[in-house]
Amino acid sequence: MSSSSPAPGGPGHPLAAAAGVHPIPLPTPFPVGDVNAWLIEDDPLTLVDVGPGSARALVALEAGLAARGHRIEDLERVVLTHEHVDHVGLAAIVVERSGAEVAAIDLLAPRLADPAGIGRRETRFMARAMQRHGLPSDVAVALVALQQGHQAWAGDPVPVGRALTAGDRLPFAGRSLEVLYRPGHSMTDTVLLDRERSIAIGGDHLIGAISSNPILACDPAALDPRLPAPEAEARVSTLRRYVASLRETAALAPAVVLAGHGDAVTDVAGLVAERLRLHERRKGKILGLLGEGEPASAFDLARRMWGDTALKQPFLVISEVLGHLDLLIDDDAIVAERADDVDRWRPR
Fold first, then answer.
1. Within 13 Å, how many C-alpha atoms sit on residue 169's CB side?
2. Which of 66, 69, 263, 293 is deepest in the core (most CB within 10 A)?
3. Measured between alpha carbons, how far is 188 from 235 in angstroms, rounded to an integer?
4. Which Pfam families would you find in this protein's record (predicted)?
5. CA–CA separation, 248 vs 272, rounded Å?
6. What contacts 129, CB < 8 A, 6 or more positions away?
7. How large is the C-alpha radius of gyration of the chain?
8. Comparing C-alpha atoms, which of 220, 287, 235 is closest to residue 130?
9. Which domains can be identified in the chain, with CATH numbers?
10. What is the C-alpha to C-alpha distance for residues 180 and 263, in angstroms, rounded to an integer?
11. How far is it, in rounded angstroms, from Cα 77 to Cα 94?
12. HEC states along 175-236?
């Protein structure tokens, strides 16, 4: 078994390596690049996140485990930090081969049990919400096709053996990890905190190189297949929740956050402060744009801010604008009005 320490500036960290927590970078088909799975060499042998449901990711996972002297069949527990396909897609294969127990936040269990069904309902909601906020119908059709393509990486259904809630603890022979619920980037974001060593495994909650997008989402309960398909009104304010989650994490002041993508974060308070300043600046820019003319939809604002990128990545940019509009509503700075089934905003 290798005992080498990670190189400075990489996804791992000497503090984590000393505690038997090691990164296994896995390729994804997405612009973000590799996703970091985290191997915890303790009893039970645990893998946090598993990568997308692709052959390339599976080969990389097998190689990464072998480099530490393990096989997939040796894994006893899989913990999933959130719902996105680049983190959960291989779960069913890993569980089938190892018999490992899956632990995940309780809100994630229905999605893992029916990834295709939940994905279809969520895609319909997204299309309705995007059109409500000004996305042309032809672009919405293309967006639906793109999102359906992403579902190919979601993997097969897998049961959650241990549904987690905030404050739960995952016991090991040599440590205990506290479960922190940190919604924002997604509605299932979970951070695992080793208080004794001041190490957090953060998923996509806090990433050094890029700002985690608070992605447009609906209330997870609205995705229940027994209910009518969610309408645009089911949208929740993910940025509002993300800002609150960031502040909660900064208050805990872990020495290191092991990120789902890229390098470990060692200045947690500094990075959180930087992210909060970013959102304040973006909020101010959007308010300024609203003061320049007629009431504008989220898509109108996205076009003004990012040009053609709003057509290439409408889901991300509209999510970004909507989050900041929510913050401006909290500030009592803007008002919304609806015409032709499209929401538009203007300064108060």
1. 8
2. 263
3. 15
4. Lactamase_B
5. 10
6. 216, 218, 232, 235
7. 20
8. 235
9. 14-347 (3.60.15.10)
10. 21
11. 10
12. CEEEEEECCCCCCCCEEEEECCCCEEEEECCCCCCCCCCCCCEECHHHHCCCCCCCCHHHEE
- The pTM for the full model equals 0.94
Q: What span, in angstroms and rounded, lies between the C-alpha atoms of 222 and 239?
A: 19
